[in-house]
Amino acid sequence: MKKQLYTALIAAGISAAFNVSAQQDAHFTQYMFNQMYFNPAATGIEQGFRGNLLYRNQWTGYQGLDGAGGAPQNILFTGALPIMAANTGVGIVINNDQIALLNDLNVSVNAAYHYKLGAGKLSGGISVGMQGRSTKSGYRVNNTEDAVYKAIDKASGEIVPDLGFGLYYSSDKFFGGISSRHLTEAKFNNTLSQMKRHYYVSGGYNIEVNPDLIVTPSFNFKTDSKQSQYELSAIAKFNNQFLGGLAYRQGDAVSVLVGLSAMQNKLRITYSLDLTVPSTDAKKPTSHEIMASYFVPMTMRGPKPIIRTPRYRK
After folding, report:
1. What backbone torsions phi and psi does residue 190 show, to the nearest 5 degrees?
2. Is 35 helix (H, G, I), strand (E, B) or coil?
């Protein structure tokens, strides 16, 4: 079952040879460590609390025409906790996306149900939250009579509802799923814009080269039905402590990723460097991501086991 599922997800990712453009959702080089950002079914899949805090600075040093900056910056927090007695998981996702004078804030609460299937878990999950969009004054335009310019010429903010859904499978060897964000496709009156529904297919496989080395190739495919993009990566974990790998984002960048685990694998620090390919005047050549992840393992509570010994038998 899991082998067939893995093959299907890989085929869907590889067959995505479509046109590429910047979609509304933020992209992250370290997508493999932030599955619940785009798939709520991954919420609480681990046997313990997991909290991630990530900062991304894209096209570092980029300056707009007025020299006032404008490079995209993201701060992402995810936290998830399993409720093992109920085979469920709950969590929260907070993402702040700043691009020039436009700011998007997404806050959602995730819930997932986990069903044991084969050697792993099959999960279904939903996210319920809000998407906020605000602007600042200061845009430079050619036509001050343009309707969009009139809408955003002054500082403004608006909040709309946001929903998501996903399916996810995870085992010691494989992880992957399908999901959709912004199901409501809500409209913003303050910027005369609309959130487009996004779809994701992701997957990865853990290959044990030897007891001290595990290599994990993975992919992430995303589309809004008009424009699509895929990401590929291969991460090696040495001695259950050191991380290193390479990644590629279609039409955008190649990346190097390094990391270190400490405190008996409870704390993990990872850093990735993107090199823009191809380089253009509209982009700076490098982007940076740094993430801290903390894990608190949990044990299943229940009645104490009965210990039988001949000493107390009659």
Report:
1. -70, -20
2. helix
